[in-house]
Structures are given as structure tokens and as C-alpha cells.
Design brief:
Blueprint lengths: L2 H21 L12 E2 L2 E4 L2 E4 L5 E9 L12 E10 L2 E11 L19 E9 L4 E10 L8 H12 L7 E10 L4 E8 L2 H4 L14 H6 L1 H25 L20 H14 L5 H12 L14 H25 L2 H33 L7 E3 L10 E3 L1
Antiparallel strand pairs: 1-4, 2-3, 4-5, 5-6, 6-10, 7-8, 8-9, 9-10, 11-12
Helix pairs in contact: 6-7, 8-9
């Protein structure tokens, strides 16, 4: 081949490679409205898991958020993705993630505190800088509902594409963070996936309270299905935060019979490591047996009492008996002694709670650790102004 021919062939080959690279979808490429993604995508250099199926990027943007205490975090990146069937939206994902690593953690969200509207609340862990929480509740919004920048673009996209959506959703929310990074994701699921056409009659938030669900076996089954799905899906959020997703998640709860748990995923990883020869037979067998018994300890957070009140009840239960004993030694009268003990119990309880809350708040302001910080963004259908409180 002549030199000119070789140069021409090399040039054509290079052009072909560049063209294929440009056409090949990548999870790391910048998101644009109208893109279709599946399995996972990247936001703020973190992997965001997607339940099986095609998701359309409907809106991307930034959150109006200012918090000097966490350092130079860049900005909060936001995205809204839609899963559709024909012209109906069956699921909406809204997700927030920091663009740059923080220096002092990302704290808690109001949604991870006990509230009457929670259908499920689980704190997997909450340490000085690390948090992992998931919740389930009903959320009300449609294409006419205002929201953050990404949602404003998404609802314009929905109107343009003539997409329909319900007014009430079952929302599975996840907040996972460490000292540096954060994923705050909410998967809004169309109840039609779980109830069929009957869901169109349930258009109020009051139709999806805990009491309402208990009174209707179908709604109770729907809540349990989404709760079971969420309790396994949080493992994907954990992996995504650390960019360790090696495979894609399963489907939305409409088709889930048995949601993979942490133990299931760990067994799968052990199998892979063993097949690759990275662990020997003895280690594989030993760790497999341990993994089967490694059931995550879920502690549903259902108490509406503050820590101060709970500590006061515990303390005063014994203190009242002690007060009665001391009073009886002085008065030798049971009725008078009980009166003194109960009076002290009532007054001291008030001062105990107020004093305890003051010191908790005082040290929270001195201590900028993640666990003491409340960080919320603006969410779809949830009129929570962006705030940060120490």
C-alpha cells in the first residue's frame, strides 16, 4: 500500500473510532433533556441506580442552596427522570448530589424524622458523619405543581410530550451520606403499577395514610410491596455513593417477588471473587456462612417522643420512688409523701426536658458534625424551602 493510502486508511479508522465513541452512550457523559438511560447514570460524579427499564432525562439543574459550614461543595446537582409507558408516567426520580466533596458531612433530612405521614421509616445507621435512612410516604404533585429548577424543566417536558401522570404517588426516599458526599433520592411510584385502574380513585393524601392502608388489603399490599422493594434497593444507593455498582438493579416493585437484601448482594459478590480466584475455597465457604447470618438490623423509628422526653421518663420512674422514700422518712405519712414525690416529679420533669434540649441545641451549634446538622433541599410536591440548620 502506498504511503498516501496508508494515511488515508488510518484517517478513516480514526474517524470511525471517534464517531462510534460519540454515539456510544456513557453513564459518565453529561445529562441532557431527552436522553434515555437505563441501569444507572452519573450525577455529581456518583452513580445513581435506576430500576430496570428505560428512563428519560426530563430536567437537570442546580439547587439554590448555601451552607458555608460544609466547605466548598461546589453546587448541589439535581436531576429528574421519568419512566413512561405509552403516554403515562409510571415513575419519577428526583435526585440531588453534591458536585464537590464536602469537609464536614451532610447531616439529616426532615423526612428521616418520625412523622404521622410516614408509612415506613428506617434508620440503617447514623454516626458522626455517616447517615443511611429510607422512608416511605405518599406525595401529591402533577405536571402543574411548582418545584425546583430540574422539576420546572421536567414538567415543561411532560407538557410538551403530552404525558399524563397521577396526582398522588407512593414515594420511596433515600438519604445516604458520608463525611464528603451525599445522595438524596426520591423514587415516586405511580400506584397504578400496584393497584391497576383502581388507583385512579385514590386522589387524596388521606387515601394513603397508615390507617387508610390498614383498612384496605389492596392498599396495604401496595405499601408493603414498595416498603420491601425499598429495603433492598437502598443497597444500590450505598454502592452508588461509592461508585461501586458493577451490575444494574432489578425492576420496580410491581414485578418484585423477593427483593435482594444486603446478604443476597454480598453472597453474589463472594461468588464473583471466588470465581475470579481472589479468595480461596476455605475463605469462601467460611465467609458465605457468615454472610447468610448477616441480616441488617433495621430499627424502624416510629416513636414521636423526643430523646429528652424518653430519658426523662426513664429517669423520673426511679426518681419518683426515691423522692417518695425520702419524703416518707421525714413525714411518716404515705399520702403526704406521694404528694411531695409527684409534685417534684412534675416540676423537675419540665426543667429536665428544657435543660436537656438547651444543652443538646447548644452543643449542636458548637459541633458541626454531620449527625447534628439538618439539611434539606426543595422537593417536588413537598413545599420545603432549602434550609440548613445547625
Amino acid at each position: 500500500m502506498k504511503p498516501k493510502g496508508r494515511w488515508a486508511a488510518a484517517l478513516l479508522h480514526a474517524l470511525a473510532l471517534l464517531t462510534s465513541a460519540a454515539l456510544m452512550p456513557s453513564a459518565a457523559s453529561a445529562l441532557a433533556v431527552g436522553d434515555t438511560v437505563s441501569g444507572r447514570f452519573e450525577l455529581g460524579e456518583k452513580q445513581i441506580p435506576l430500576p430496570a427499564g428505560k428512563w428519560t432525562v426530563a430536567g437537570v439543574g442546580n439547587q439554590n442552596f448555601s451552607m458555608p459550614e460544609v466547605g466548598a461543595f461546589g453546587t448541589i446537582r439535581s436531576a429528574v427522570l421519568l419512566m413512561t409507558r405509552e403516554s403515562s408516567v409510571v415513575a419519577v426520580l428526583e435526585v440531588n448530589a453534591n458536585a464537590l466533596p464536602s469537609t464536614d458531612g451532610w447531616g439529616r433530612t426532615k423526612a428521616c424524622a418520625p412523622a404521622e405521614n410516614q408509612l415506613m421509616l428506617i434508620d440503617r445507621y447514623r454516626t458522626g458523619w455517616e447517615t443511611s435512612c429510607q422512608f416511605l410516604r405518599a406525595t401529591r404533585f402533577d405536571a402543574g405543581t411548582a418545584g425546583p429548577e430540574a422539576w420546572e424543566k421536567a414538567r415543561a417536558f411532560a407538557v410538551k410530550e403530552k404525558l399524563t401522570m397521577p396526582q398522588v404517588w407512593l414515594t420511596a426516599g433515600f438519604r445516604v451520606s458520608d463525611r464528603h458526599d451525599l445522595i438524596d433520592a426520591r423514587y415516586h411510584i405511580n400506584p397504578t403499577l400496584l393497584l391497576g385502574p383502581a388507583a385512579s380513585q385514590l386522589t387524596q393524601l388521606s387515601d394513603w395514610t397508615g390507617e387508610a392502608a390498614k383498612a384496605d388489603p389492596l392498599r396495604q399490599g401496595a405499601v408493603r410491596a414498595v416498603a420491601a422493594w425499598g429495603s433492598g434497593f437502598d443497597a444500590w444507593i450505598e454502592r452508588g455513593l461509592r461508585n461501586r455498582m458493577a451490575e444494574d438493579p432489578g425492576p420496580l416493585p410491581e414485578l418484585v417477588a423477593a427483593t435482594p437484601s444486603y446478604a443476597d448482594l454480598k453472597l453474589r459478590e463472594l461468588d464473583r471473587l471466588h470465581q475470579e480466584g481472589r479468595i480461596d475455597d476455605a475463605t469462601y465457604k467460611a465467609q458465605t456462612e457468615r454472610a447468610k447470618a448477616e441480616v441488617p438490623e433495621f430499627k424502624p423509628n416510629t416513636s414521636l417522643l423526643s430523646n429528652s422526653v424518653r430519658k426523662n421518663i426513664s429517669f423520673r420512674s426511679i426518681g419518683t420512688i426515691v423522692d417518695y422514700g425520702i419524703a416518707y422518712l421525714v413525714t411518716a405519712n404515705s399520702a403526704v409523701s406521694w404528694g411531695i414525690a409527684l409534685t417534684l416529679n412534675a416540676t423537675d420533669s419540665v426543667w429536665f426536658v428544657l435543660n436537656d434540649q438547651y444543652w443538646d441545641d447548644y452543643y449542636a451549634r458548637l459541633n458541626t458534625h454531620d449527625a447534628e446538622r439538618l439539611v434539606d433541599f426543595t422537593y417536588i410536591g413537598d413545599y420545603v424551602a432549602a434550609e440548613a440548620r445547625l
